[in-house]
Specification:
Blueprint (H helix, E strand, L loop, with lengths): L6 H14 L11 H39 L5 H10 L6 H10 L1 H11 L1
Length: 114
């Protein structure tokens, strides 16, 4: 009995990966094995960097809060400590946004914790 292979599905699977690697340089876009490896590695980088992005943004928020807190004579750690002691539950993302876009509101919070 002849060997049965599903060439339609195989071709579709390969075309899907080759479509995803369109725009890449050299053999990465048109040679199946190279394109498959390139796409898989790209997925690993994407997974890793979605987590690194969170780290980077948290660091940015901390820098912005620190810069704003120093205008009121406090370091970041002192400001955050006083904030928690005063039972003001506000996250770093919102604090950084207030410090950048609404300095009056940040000033009100800073004066409340002083």
């Amino acid at each position: 009995m002849p060997r049965s292979v599903n060439s339609v599905a195989s071709r579709a699977r390969r075309k899907k990966i080759l479509k995803l690697t369109r725009g890449q340089f050299g053999r990465r876009k048109n040679v199946w094995t190279v394109a498959k490896n390139s796409w898989e590695k790209g997925q690993q980088y994407a997974y890793r960097d979605r987590r690194n992005k969170k780290r980077s943004f948290r660091a940015l928020w901390i820098m912005r809060i620190n810069a704003a807190a120093r205008q009121f004579g406090m370091s970041y750690s002192v400001f955050m400590g006083k904030l928690h002691k005063a039972n003001i539950e506000i996250n770093r993302k919102v604090l950084a946004d207030l410090a950048l876009n609404n300095p009056e509101a940040f000033k009100a919070i800073a004066q409340k914790v002083m």
